[in-house]
Amino acid sequence: MPDTLHKTIVSVRKRARWALIFRGVGWGIALGIGVLLVTGILDYYMRLDDRLSRATFSSLCLLAIVAVVFRFFLPPLRRQMTELSVAQRIQDRFPSLQNKVASAVEFSHQQEDDLLAGSATMRQAVIDEVTGELAGVPLGEVVRYRPAVTASLAAVATLAVVLLIALFIPTGSGIALARLTNPFGDTVWPQINQLFFRNPPTHIPVGGLFEAEVDDKKGVLPEDVFIEYRFGDEQGIRSLRNPMHFINGIMVAQRKNVKQSFSYRAVGGDDETPWQTLMVVTPPRVEALQASVHPPDYAGWPTTESRGSITGLVGSTVQITGNTTKSVKSATLKTETGDSKPFAIDGLHIRFPSGSTEPWALKQSGTYSLTMVDEHGIEGGGNEQWQVHAISDEPPTVSIESPIPQSQASFDAMLPVRVFAKDGLAIRDILLRYTRSDQPESEEQSILLFQGSDHAPPLSREALNAHMAKGDRRLEQYQWDLASLDLSAGTEISFYAAAHDYQPAEGKSAPTHTITIVSKEELAQQLATRQRALLAELSRVVGREKHSHTDTRGLQIQLDELGQLDERELHQLRGIEFTEREVREALTGNNESILRKADALLGELKNNKIDRPQMVDQLESLGRLLKHVEANHLGAVEQELTRARKFLQTDFSEDEQSDATKEDPTGDSQRIDASRMEARAALNNAAE
């Protein structure tokens, strides 16, 4: 029986021991693998590259594993479970057994002849009783298998995770294990990011804009990317770090108004770019720019030169030369219309046009600039612009000053024609072109009024500016003998004037003039009617003059009797002055005056060879009379009236001032009397 009890206790002890071992080993494996996984993941994200840090990291991982071994592996192996402790564990699980199991285990280890242990029969009876009771209880419940199962499952799960990671991420698993086991080796993690600069600038002009663009070759930019600047000056090297901005799928950084060279790099994620060097340089400029303008051959103008700005005729060709402040690889002339023309480069000297470039012919006014690019790609000169003034050579302007557009003439009239022509350069010829209504099928005929030289007169540079401001002006007068045309009454002659310059371009007068041929009797009657209308107009003007004379006499009498004129009479005097001015204008003052009309009638009588001696004498006498009145009376009357009004206005204002102040009455009175005397004399002269 004791052997049966012993075997039962030993069986329970083995199961309990294996449960402890499985729990310890399971949790040890799970935690050890967890430590390795966590360490590998931390190493992946931290990317420790220096060996000291990696050695420290590996040491911490080893210490954690050692701690797991000492905590979970060794305790179940070193723990000694006695039969007595197992018996006590059985009693704890089955309280009904009380302390009999422990007593039975102790009795089983005592000798039968041990006098101190008590009765051997009683001890054997206890052992037999306990053995029987143990056979009736479920001893499998004494050992708790759940912790061991949980630990085993945890170990299996972590092992499964490790196997899956090793299966699907073999390279990463190998790298992590190699870095942990050999922290002093050269094994590194593959980079997540691979930053690079898009077209990194190496040179910019002084005061220019620095702009850098960063992208990732692996397609995924870090969330935060910084650009680091490194400046070197007299105080040493200083650094600056600024965040870059995500714009349209790339990281962008800018610095404005850069005046100092520096180095720069981008840092983000697990990568940093190599240092780039940016040099600040002075952009190229042009010096001693010289523009030569060659006018068209027909113009006769000299070649002109200027410092950049260009003035010339449309069609002129331009040559430009200059020197650059530094060596350039290209120089381009750009016009306001978008044209680009390359320069030829010879060291620091540039010239346009080059051998393969068409000349620049002026077409319109505007501006032009010169853009240069140096060996580093720095552009300069584009901000400076020069003016281009292209002078358009318009056709001549022509007008017929006489006769009027619609006129009549006799068949043998000697018609005076006045033609005015103007051109910006030079007039080559002036023509009078006409057609006849009685010869509708005949071609247009011409009369040469002026013929210049075959080529435009050459101009010196000194005379060019004056000629450009004035141009060429000509007034041609021609006596057109209609008798040579053998015209009959009712025939109409339509004519206009034309002028040519040396382009050649033609200008025509407008509107077309028309001369109607009428009989001398009809023309004489028309002229007589116009003479009567002229005399009637003269009568009306003379009537106004007489009325003005009467008013002037009245004011003279008023001034003689009262010694002064009031404000209303001064206004009347001003009205008389205006009337005299209008009378003068009506008689002799303008192209519509009676004198001009009388001269025109007289001219038409003579030009049309109408024999009316009495009418001629009357018109000549009227002309002489009007000229005499103009020279000896009209101007003098107007001047005297103006003088009288001024004196009387002075008298009136001084009289009011004297009444207002009441100071120095003697001096005021003397000035007023003098003004009145002058006014009275002037008014008397005007009345006479």
Task: Give a verbal description of the structure.
About 45% of the residues lie in helices and about 25% in strands. The chain starts with a helix and ends with a helix. The model is unreliable at about 655-670 (pLDDT under 50). It contains 13 helices and 31 strands. It is α+β, with helices and mostly antiparallel strands and about 700 residues long. Strands 2, 4, 5, 8, 9 and 10 form a six-stranded mixed β-sheet that branches. Strands 11, 12, 14, 17, 18 and 19 form a six-stranded antiparallel β-sheet that branches.
Structural descriptors:
688 residues, alpha+beta, 6-stranded mixed beta sheet, 6-stranded antiparallel beta sheet, 31 strands, rod-shaped
Helical percent range? Answer: 40-55%
Shape: rod-shaped
Rounded radius of gyration (Å): 63 Å
Number of helical elements = 13
Instruction: Enumerate the spans where pLDDT stays under 50 for 5 or more consecutive residues.
Output: 657-669
Structural class: alpha+beta
Overall pLDDT: 81
The CA-CA distance between the termini, in Å, is 185 Å
Counting copies of identical and different chains, the oligomeric state is single chain
Strand content: 25-35%
The major beta sheet can be summarized as: 6 strands, mixed
Number of strands: 31
